[in-house]
Amino acid sequence: MKTILTITFVLFIGMAAQAQEAKIDTNIAEVEMADTKEVKLESKTEVARLYKFKNSRVKKALAFTTKRNKAKMA
């Protein structure tokens, strides 16, 4: 008897949950975007260095040595 009541209770709750109508708001917001391009002209002329190998500035900076890097005799 208890199982029959439990099954009917679960089915009743399930049917009641499916019978609910979900309210859906369908508001559409219109957004206008203007296409504007800003072009800045620079009057500076800079000299660029060309390296034969990539990342040569980084490798040069990472290749530094200090006095403590030298091997010590034990």
Oligomer: single chain
What are the low-pLDDT stretches, counting only 5+ consecutive residues below 50?
none
> What is the share of helical residues?
25-40%
User: Total number of helical segments?
Assistant: 2
Task: Give the tally of β-strands.
Answer: 0
Gyration radius, in Å: 37 Å
Q: Give the overall average pLDDT.
A: 81
Beta content: under 5%
Distance separating the two termini: 88 Å
Shape: elongated
The structural domain count equals 1
Q: H/E series, N to C?
A: HH
Structural class label: mainly alpha
Largest sheet: none
Signal peptide: 1-19
Keywords: Signal
Structural features, described:
The protein has 74 residues and is mostly helical. It has one domain. 32% of the residues lie in helices and 0% in strands. The chain has 2 helices and no strands. The termini are far apart. Keywords: Signal.
List the helices and strands and how they pair.
Layout: H1 2-18, H2 56-62
Signal peptide: 1-19
Keywords: Signal
How would you describe this structure in keywords?
74 residues, mainly alpha, 2 helices, 32% helix, 0% strand, elongated
Brief sketch in words of this structure:
Residues 1-19 form the signal peptide. The chain has 74 residues and is mainly alpha-helical.
